[in-house]
Amino acid sequence: MRIATYNVNGVNGRLPVLLRWLAETAPDVVCLQELKAPDEKFPEAAIRDAGYGAIWHGQKSWNGVAILAKGCDPVETRRGLPGDPDDSHSRYIEAAVGGVLVGGLYLPNGNPRPGPKFDYKLRWFDRLIDHAATLIGMDAPVVIAGDYNVMPTDRDVYKPERWRDDALFAPEVKAAYFRMLGQGWTDALRTLHPDETIYTFWDYFRNAYARNAGLRIDHLLLNAPAAKTLRAAEVDSYVRGWEKTSDHAPVWVELGT
DNA sequence: ATGCCTTTTAGGAAAAGA
């Protein structure tokens, strides 16, 4: 089973790119982030015509997450993280697909730092870690995938010194990421490619993609039953080179299940 | 050092993204 995550940066503006990528690579499960569309504007028909069932949690203008499943409907198990009933952002959705529990997330950016947006990022990350603690020990494979908005190490940034004060590279945020890994999650991409330069995001400007001035911020975290069957993990970097493309590229894992 | 692009909403300009 191939499970992917893709921050599309506007699901309607990006629909041709998304449909082309689905047709060319046929992933079994896809977590989407930054739909930038309310629930009623989600392109359900086009995605169904492409062969995918879907659940989504939209929001006007910003945020928004979805889970697609090839040839079936994801069975929703949760939308939104527990721990803050006043959180109005659509940033987490979770479903069972083919015996795998899949969480799709869009972690807050957190800039500028310091400030209320950064505080929100840290609180949101804490809530994610609390929820992840309830999933890590499941007997079934669990994959928590999405845009974590954190580069875990210097190796995940084209120029680390330029990002020292940024909310995506702040010590508190990296610490939260490693606290989550400490529960027993496997960072699939880094585990299979320990020494490679791998990015999942490139700015639209400064010719960032052509210069490979990127960041690795989209991650797939696997619990032990999922990690045991991990066969491959890759970035579909070439999609970043398409016309009218997102600033993120799709990232995926292949599990033996 | 910098949102230098891009999307969204809205019908011009501004917010947000990373």
Give an overview in words.
The chain is an alpha+beta fold. The chain has a single domain (2-255), classed as Endonuclease/exonuclease/phosphatase (Deoxyribonuclease I, Chain A, 4-Layer Sandwich), CATH 3.60.10.10. It has helices at residues 15-25, 44-49, 116-135, 171-181, 188-192, 208-211, 224-227; strands at residues 2-7, 29-33, 52-57, 65-70, 75-79, 92-97, 100-106, 142-147, 186-187, 201-202, 214-215, 218-222, 230-235, 251-255. The strands form three sheets. It has a six-stranded mixed beta sheet. Strands 5-6-7-8-12-9 form a six-stranded mixed beta sheet. Strands 10-11 form a two-stranded antiparallel sheet. Strand 1, helix 1 (15-25) and strand 2 (29-33) form a beta-alpha-beta unit. Helix 3 (116-135) runs parallel beside helix 4. The longest helix is centred in the middle third of the chain and has 20 residues, at 116-135. It is globular. The structure holds one DNA strand of 18 nucleotides.
Quick structural gist:
Its EC number is 3.1.11.2. The chain has helices at residues 15-25, 44-49, 116-135, 171-181, 188-192, 208-211, 224-227, and strands spanning 2-7, 29-33, 52-57, 65-70, 75-79, 92-97, 100-106, 142-147, 186-187, 201-202, 214-215, 218-222, 230-235, 251-255.
Tell me what portion of residues adopts beta-strand conformation: 25-35%
Low-confidence residue ranges:
none
Helix and strand element order? EHEHEEEEEHEHEHEHEEHEE
Would you tell me the structural class of the helices and strands?
alpha+beta
Number of strands: 14
User: Span between N and C termini?
Assistant: 6 Å
Domain module tally: 1
CATH superfamily grouping:
Endonuclease/exonuclease/phosphatase
| Number of contiguous helices | 7
Reading side by side through the largest sheet, how are the strands ordered?
Answer: 3-4-2-1-14-13
Shape summary: globular
InterPro entries: AP_endonuc_1, AP_endonuclease_F1_BS, Endo/exonu/phosph_ase_sf, Endo/exonuclease/phosphatase, ExoIII-like
GO molecular function, one term: double-stranded DNA 3'-5' DNA exonuclease activity
Organism: Sphingomonas naasensis
Site (Interaction with DNA substrate): 248
